[in-house]
Amino acid sequence: MTEVRPPAAPSAALWERDEELAAVAEAVDVLCADRHSPGTLLVLRGEAGLGKTALLAETRRIAEQRGCTVWSARGGETLRTVPFNVVRQLLQPALVSMLPEEAREYLGDWYGIAGPALGIADPGDGQADPQGVCEGLVAAVRRLARRDWPLVLLIDDAHWADQETLYWLAVFAERLADLSVLVVVARRPGEITGMSARHLDAVAEAAGRPVTDLSALTPEAAAGLTRATLGENADAAFCREVWAVTGGNPYETVELLAKVQDTELDPVEAHAGELRELNRSARGGGLVARLEELGIDATRFAWAAAILGDGITVDLVAQLATLGPDQAARCAERLRGARILTARDPASAGPAELEFVHPLIATAVYNSIPDALRRAMHGIAARIVTDSGRGAAAAARHLLEVHPDDDEELVWQLREAAREHLAVGAPDAARRCLERALEEPPRPEVHALVLHELGSATFLTAPARTIGHLRTALGMPGLDGDRRVDAVIRLSQALLHNDQMEEAVRTVEAEAARMPAGPTRMRLQAVQFMWEGVHAGESLTPGRSERLAELAATCTGRDNAERALLILRGFDAMMRGENAEEIAEICDRALVNGRLAPGLGWTDNEWGVELLLMLASSYVYTDRLDRAEALYSEALQAYDTAGWGGGHLVLAHAYVGLAHRRRGRLEAAENSLRESLRLAERVGRGLPLYWTATSNLVDTLLARGHVDEAWAMAERHGFAPPYPSTVVLPDPRSVRGRLLLAVGRTKEGVNELEAAEKAAAARGHLNPVHVFAAADLARALTTEDPARAARLAVDVRRRAERLGTDTAIGEALRVAAALDTGQRAVRLAGQAVTYLESSPCQYEHAAARIEYGVLARSVPDLERGEALARSCGADGLVERARAELATGVGRR
């Protein structure tokens, strides 16, 4: 407890806060000591009135004394539906103070992505990716922090921050280790649930230190505060009653003592009994009664201020409360004198002149407005905002509160607000607008359109909701032509992401059957083939591959529907292990002058990312790695430029890693795949993209010889059955079987590889490079069941020769050499080297060269194999080659 007490009531909330202030001072010292020091995050948690705001104000004072730049923002109970509200408060002042060209320069490529969310740039026409926008906001703070170091960010009432800000804050908090900035977050315990609560919990976890829980004043501190305010003549009994009545809440204590001063109550035991009634008048119903005593005009002014929530100016309140300028000015002064409103902190963002003295007062005033009147005032506020030219999105929080009244214009405004929200990367805000539009309700002719738009808004965040909305929309009149087809395809995508693969296929199949022959029907057929092509189970439709081959044979690539069918045919042929030359020729026909056609780019929405990943993967597994790498790199660049994060960026990094792995650049592969898995953790475990990142990373770690790390990675990330219902490259069952063999769990590994081989055969997936279970199984059975191992080796070689790539044939020869002995084994190993030397897959070449060196007792081959392995980052192969060389191979 402090010995030197604050001398006056305004510092009341800092009584008994020595530890908290010491932590703040230490954090500021660390920040100022070195611009390369890691960032610090402090989280203050306490019930209303315990002094969180006062601690933040003191943090500002301490930081500014040390020469820091301080930016601050505050959540508001009635503003939680305003996307990016708090992060805008935080960053806008710094950005608005710049010239437009300067802001562009600081934000760089992120200007067009984060600028609309921050309100400093116009949004684009399409739907912005929320994770990309979040990354842009993180980048914005990074760049501004370097300019304005040492920088302190203060966020008050974070429990009332909008969900988009909390998402950004959770991501930003994870990155503080390499960014010198101090972040102090104040919040109440509880208050919120759902996604916002999870984001706040993530912020607390990222702090790396315990959350600071603020406690109420002790009786001794309450007595000291009472005497500091009322004079040393306040007796002990009176001071004890002050503490008992307020529960030691600093805010309530200050307000109660102010009421005592107003009433000139003598602070002695005889008057202690009056404290409870005085305290009631300072809160809840008592506060409302006190407000009413100020007169109807002042009450209307306070109500209008509560409706506005932020941006409270006398002029704006006058419009909403229908008061004249002089009346409004007098009301503002009266409310300031009654400690209901106060002058806005000049350091805060925005044009506001006033704010409520405390959030408790704002809440009490807002809740005191009669329900019908409150809804009507929100309607007037929406009109004022719209008339000011700030757009439908700015008026949306008011529109959401208006009573449903079959208002066609309101439906239009809410739909327009939803479009604006989607354009800045706030799909949850768009969802709220469209759900409210449905309550109005919309006219029959637009009802299906609203549902369609709602399905698009929830697609990224809630596939199950999307399914319901789109199914309902498709059962109503109003969706025709391309809009209906788009809705059907979007529904099938939602079913796919919700792991309802068969329903996804049937949905587009049924719609295609309704259509006459032509481009639209072909598009739907292509989507059906696409979903069937990524399904990991048994074929849904008998003769699918044959029908796809027949349909693709008629395609010349004249439009994107035909190009899609060619890509699907190429992928299907690759998975089935058909001739690689023919596969590449089919895929090449889907390109225009060797590039993706307009409308088939990585950020085009009509076809989706799955189709292009199929195209690039067909090149990967037919030894056309140059083409695959070009496509994957183009995807990564396109998503970075467009600010697309989430699943798109996860897959881009994963497939770049796959290309590195196939090329033999194992360290680069590992780096890409770790980044993919880091991003995938945010999107959600168990999704196909999560499996893609994990399967590739485990396979790469095994290739590097890092077996223990591969096992730990698999355990940590749930790389075990049950497997996803969609195709993953490389085959996760094969990878897990290889992993089990590597850690010595041979029986389990054999069982897993057998299951992988059986599942692949049932699906017709006979590409021996993608599904390598048979090759690994043959090696594993060499001693236990040599006859079966030999049959498997023959089958692997037959599949490899059918595919015809140097990689496949070379790998098949390696298996055959491992099963044979004597000079025949040497010859087979030599043939494997010859094929793999011509292959673009350098890791496999290194492995074959070392195996040949061992069998042929050739020092030059071992040395060359070691050099190749070292260039690949294959530490396990390097160790093996060195061990063989150390034994004197070639000199025996």
Automatic annotation (TrEMBL):
<dbReference type="InterPro" id="IPR011990">
    <property type="entry name" value="TPR-like_helical_dom_sf"/>
</dbReference>
<feature type="domain" description="Orc1-like AAA ATPase">
    <location>
        <begin position="16"/>
        <end position="184"/>
    </location>
</feature>
<dbReference type="Pfam" id="PF13191">
    <property type="entry name" value="AAA_16"/>
</dbReference>
<keyword id="KW-0067">ATP-binding</keyword>
<dbReference type="InterPro" id="IPR041664">
    <property type="entry name" value="AAA_16"/>
</dbReference>
<dbReference type="InterPro" id="IPR019734">
    <property type="entry name" value="TPR_rpt"/>
</dbReference>
<dbReference type="InterPro" id="IPR027417">
    <property type="entry name" value="P-loop_NTPase"/>
</dbReference>
<keyword id="KW-0547">Nucleotide-binding</keyword>
<protein>
    <submittedName>
        <fullName>AAA family ATPase</fullName>
    </submittedName>
</protein>
